[in-house]
Write a structure and sequence with these properties.
This protein is mainly alpha-helical. It has one domain. Helices cover 70% and strands 0% of the residues. Helix 3 crosses helix 8, helix 4 runs parallel beside helix 12 and helix 11 runs antiparallel to helix 12. The mean pLDDT is 91.
């Protein structure tokens, strides 16, 4: 491992991302409107390309990341990357709603309430298109499985080139894979910390121990997802596969928010679920990661 290169990469990546997040998060908190939210989302999307840009600079070129699409011997991983994250996310959400059934609502009351805070009337918008919230939910779930992962893949590529294409392989030159997963996942989680603390990104503001508990829970989810994506990248040596997996995770986690009920105390429990990175809803994903991780490390 080139220690100097890893330190330079990590430092520049985190500082650059933290600056971008802080600016757009403060702007969003001062402008709780649709425009403010758009600025926040665009800023976070742009931030996702920071790891790739810094990795290419530190690496002194584009070589070695696995840009060329690869299908022979690993094409079977395409449906795995597209569908397994959604299956795990749904299983995790179901587990969350088993513990907290009062938070389940197929009518989209939470989304409607969130829209009203931003000056949007979701029901009126859907009515103009001849749709109900239930129909919209079905369409959203189908899109999350069928084509949203492919679209999100191009944005997720910005992080995957940096994390899986550069950082994890460098760490793995010195550490075994479980240690690499832990260190890499911790860095990946820290990449998002300012937005979580300033704008309530991922879990909101109301959970106990804000924001430190949120940072810990999110770090666990990043370690687990990073392990999945590293295993896929190590198997394929093609950066498009972990990017597709990452894109599928992002697509599914957004759809699950439609199932929330507009309960007054829901925000206190979002640290637990139903999104894939909640402490309860991540249990199926953690279990699968442990099983695959043991199998991979034993085989090696």
């Amino acid at each position: 491992m080139n220690k100097k290169k890893v330190i330079i990469y990590t430092t520049i990546t985190l500082i650059s991302a933290w600056i971008i997040q802080s600016v757009v998060s403060v702007y969003f908190m001062q402008n709780q409107t649709t425009a403010g939210k758009s600025v926040f989302q665009i800023g976070l999307s742009a931030m996702m390309f920071v790891p790739a840009v810094v990795a290419i600079i530190v690496n002194k070129g584009f070589k070695g990341f696995g840009w060329k699409p690869k299908f022979k011997g690993c094409g079977w991983l395409i449906p795995v990357c597209m569908f397994v994250p959604g299956i795990m996310a749904i299983a995790g959400a179901a587990l969350f709603f088993v513990f907290f059934p009062r938070f389940l609502d197929f009518g989209g009351s939470y989304l409607i309430a969130q829209g009203e805070q931003m000056g949007m009337d979701y029901q009126a918008m859907l009515a103009q298109k001849g749709m109900t919230m239930q129909t919209y939910n079905i369409i959203s779930v189908l899109s999350a499985f069928l084509y949203a992962p492919l679209i999100n893949m191009f944005v997720a590529l910005g992080e995957e080139v940096g994390w899986r294409g550069f950082l994890y392989p460098e760490l793995n030159k010195k550490f075994n894979r479980p240690i690499t997963w832990i260190i890499g996942g911790t860095v990946w989680a820290a990449f998002h910390f300012p937005a979580m603390a300033i704008a309530g990104y991922e879990y909101g503001f109301d959970y106990p121990g804000f924001p430190f508990v949120g940072w810990i829970v999110f770090t666990i989810s990043c370690i687990v997802m990073g392990a999945f994506e590293e295993m896929v990248y190590n198997k394929t040596k093609c950066i498009w596969y972990p990017a597709l997996l990452h894109g599928a995770v992002n697509a599914t986690s957004f759809v699950l928010m439609f199932l929330n009920a507009n309960e007054p105390d829901l925000n206190e429990y979002m640290i637990l679920g139903p999104a894939f990175n909640g402490l309860i809803s991540m249990i199926p994903m953690v279990a699968l990661a442990v099983i695959l991780g043991i199998a991979v490390t034993r085989k090696k």
